[in-house]
Write a structure and sequence with these properties.
mainly alpha; Helix Hairpins; two-stranded antiparallel sheet; 5 helices
């Protein structure tokens, strides 16, 4: 699970202008792929997605996801207002 704040090297209080500057800097540094940088930008520019990322960054959900074998659901086309959906396998 990618942390968009780490990709863009910004804190959670960054505004839209800071995010755009960080995107340009990240593209020049080439530390991450263009796809990862674009995904980070999309997540942080959308208010709902940014709130989700802030929650995930505060709550370390990585151990939970690994223990439960949770996988993201693939969807054909996403718009910026969509959230990433997670499918939890049935236990039986």
């Amino acid at each position: 699970m990618m942390n968009p704040y780490n990709v863009l090297n910004i804190d959670q209080n960054a505004g839209d202008q800071e995010i755009l500057k960080a995107v340009a800097l990240a593209m020049r540094e080439r530390k991450y792929s263009v796809k990862e940088i674009a995904e980070a930008r999309m997540k942080l520019m959308d208010p709902v997605s940014k709130a989700v990322e802030n929650f995930i960054c505060v709550m370390d959900v990585t151990p939970f996801l690994k223990d439960r074998n949770v996988k993201p659901v693939s969807r054909p086309a996403l718009v910026s207002s969509d959230l990433d959906y997670i499918r939890v396998p049935e236990q039986g």
